[in-house]
Write a structure and sequence with these properties.
This protein is an alpha/beta fold and about 300 residues long. It has 11 helices and 9 strands. The longest helix is centred in the first third of the chain and has 16 residues.
């Protein structure tokens, strides 16, 4: 039988704050076919799992899953571990979904597929889910997690791999893009820096490179009244809202103090915004077709 007290002490010495909880999860992670073997066999498997954790590997990678929005999400080496604070994003997304009728979901930078799976599970079969990520390693986990709900999984950069038929039809677009500024990645916990893909952590110079790219095309893919939701740092939120507004979306910021979570929502208007001057010519202004013959046209 495993020495539970010794296991807890070993984890605590390695810096695991919740050593008792982690010990319980590690014990439960010993495969069932091993659990029926002799004690030495079980302890050997457990010791290998503990060694991985003590070496700094994320607990979720070691035990093979993360719990997110009440769901068991399969994860492992090479994929970003879904954070519990992102459950606030799911809650915000669900709060604005109409009570009846078909719903089209799109999860960009989907990683393990946790956000999309949580939304599709909550909404049931009336929801159709598309998920995309540029990282083939992450998509291996996303396909595994999303297969039971019949999701459409696409490999490629943001909107590039999506079918054209989705344009103008997406009701909920989630994009849990990285928002850590490049210079601050080194300040993240070691287990994240060493074991999660950099592409899922580094948001560029100010952390908002991917937010800008997602927002730039969002209105093209959203249905009228459709919403884009992203997570951000609390201090970044006003700038994210400004990016959404510049992209033609109505922006809203929401905070959850308990989970230290901030979500910015951008809603596509039901009617196109009025074209502000000078982009809209006045009746007395010449139209583009009335331009001087010396102006290049159609070239």
């Amino acid at each position: 039988m495993a020495d539970v007290a010794g296991l807890v002490a070993r984890l605590r010495a390695a810096g695991c704050v919740f050593a008792e909880d982690e010990a319980e999860l590690l014990l439960a992670a010993v495969p069932e076919d091993v659990a029926g073997r002799d004690a030495a066999g079980r302890d050997g498997v457990l010791d290998a799992l503990v060694a991985r954790r003590v070496a700094g590997e994320p607990l979720e990678h070691v035990v093979g899953h993360a719990v997110f929005h009440g769901l068991r999400i399969a994860v492992g080496p090479g994929v970003f571990v879904p954070r519990r604070r992102s459950e606030f994003l799911v809650a915000r997304a669900l709060a604005g979904v109409r009570a009846e009728g078909a719903v089209t979901l799109l999860d960009l930078c989907c990683g393990s597929g946790a956000l999309g799976l949580a939304l599709r599970t909550a909404l049931g079969p009336r929801a159709t889910l598309h998920a995309a990520d540029v990282d083939p390693g992450a998509l291996r986990w996303a396909r595994r997690n999303l297969a039971p709900v019949g999701a459409h999984v696409h490999e490629g950069d943001l909107y590039a791999p999506l079918p054209a038929a989705l344009r103008g039809r997406v009701d909920v677009l989630t994009a849990n893009v990285p928002y850590v500024p490049s210079e601050e990645v080194r300040l993240l916990p070691a287990e994240a820096r060493a074991h999660e893909p950099l592409v899922a952590l580094d948001g560029g110079t100010d952390g908002l490179d991917l937010v800008r790219r997602v927002a730039e095309e969002a209105a093209t893919w959203l249905a009228p009244g459709g919403r884009l939701l992203v997570e951000s740092g609390e201090r970044q939120a006003p700038e994210v809202a400004g990016i959404f507004t510049a992209a033609g979306l109505h922006a809203e910021i929401a905070h959850e103090e308990e989970g230290w979570a901030t979500v910015v929502t951008g809603t596509r208007p039901h009617t196109p915004p009025a074209c502000p001057p000078p982009a809209c010519p006045s009746p007395s202004s010449p139209s583009p077709s009335d331009a001087s013959p010396s102006s290049p046209s159609g070239v």
